[in-house]
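Bench notes, bay 3.
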Amino acid sequence: MNRRAVLILSSVLPLLPLAGLPAHAEPAALTLVMFEQPGCTYCAAWNANVGPEYPLTDEGRAAPLHRVQLRDGIPEGMQMTSVPVFTPTFVLMGDGQELGRIEGYPGEDFFWGMLGAMLRDAGADLRR
């Protein structure tokens, strides 16, 4: 190979991995999975205090809620770091991958603060 061909290839090869990629990456499709079970008093508290307003908030629009019974296990197509043990457990999913987790519900301030941090880390656009 002549020197000119080597120079051309050396300047083009580093750019090949970028070929065909969009100019900006779209954020992952987010979902908040709530693992719950009958008789869970903390689940009931979350349902009473947060549940009705959740879909109306920026957080709820950024990561719609998907409820799962704890005993049913991890839904097909979801990759999680571990099987949830406690209820409620909230798992933030992005394109089928676990991005963050909140175990338990000690109150609204804890929940909204932790969820907001996880969503911001995941690239969600929250107005707060």
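Next record in the batch:
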Amino acid sequence: MKEEIRVVHTCPLGTGGITSMVLNICEHLDRSKINFDYLTYRNQHEYNEDRALALGGKKLVADNSSARNSISRIFLKFYNVYRILKKSETDIFHINASSPYDTLAGIAAKIAGVNKVIVHSHNANSSNLSKFWILVNKFIKFVMPLYTDAYMTCSTEAAKYMFPKRIFKNRNYIYVRNGIETEKFRYNEKIRAKIRQQIGCENAFIVGTVGRLSKQKNQMFLLEVFGDVVKKKKNSILLLIGIGDLKEKLIAKADELGIREKVIFFGSASNVNELMQAMDVFVMTSLHEGLPVVGIEAQAAGLPCVLSDVITRETAILDTVSFINLKQDIHIWSDVIISYSKKNYERKEGTEKIIEAGFDIQSVANDLYFNYLEILNNKQ
């Protein structure tokens, strides 16, 4: 085996949770022994691109935007993945997948001569798929073993959704925790005071969330819930961290609810760890998730969490996590959120328990490196 292992991750270099985790892992590896390249499908400069390149990786672009329709886009994407990997010296092609369809790039990798293909599930569902795409995903799960050498997942539910029944039933997959830089999130009163002053919310009850402004993250529902929070607790502020296509619609929704001045659309942030110090409670109303890394970060910061019950219970490391059904009345959501206000709840240190549970990024990086070695040495 050559000295340096080269792993190509299918990974956008924007602001998402998958990107954050992959780059965090890379930063904690011995890059003289192993390093990552990043295959993206967007031919434009991305938020985390410079960070990725600074780690010694390359951005590989399989752009299919010139295609005229969805069918030609699929074939152009497939061809570009093949062309790129054929010219690269790739030991492992690591597919970070949100749906079975995402794994088809593994066929192109195998044809290109890549030694090992890993399918890594980061999602536990897909919303509003047509009957056609449901059938397509079922077929892909059936043929997945033909081009997949190893399976990884962030949670049991994500494994169940993504992998063939036989793989899931036999637990023939590797559990890779969504690791975080735990020390960065350790609760700090001084940072809390500084950030709250900077955003002009020293005396506010801050409800916070982090994620793409997208249908999956379901911030429209969160705005409705927060509207009820404000009725019951006037000094409440909603801190929305993230960017996405729904921003203008969310602003319009906040206007419609009469809470626009109570909602901070913060945009992307490189200091999420500090912004979490300023929050009082963390909320996620997602329609589906794998295991959200921001939920682990929030607990490390000592934040109580109120999550939709579609999110796997494996997210709950501390006993300060509540799960609520999205069909429940918004009054129930708002009551639970307000129950964590300062007069009822004393913020607790969460970092040590997160480390004990195996979510520290250094531990995750070490384990993944040895998993890579084992997969490469497997001759099957």
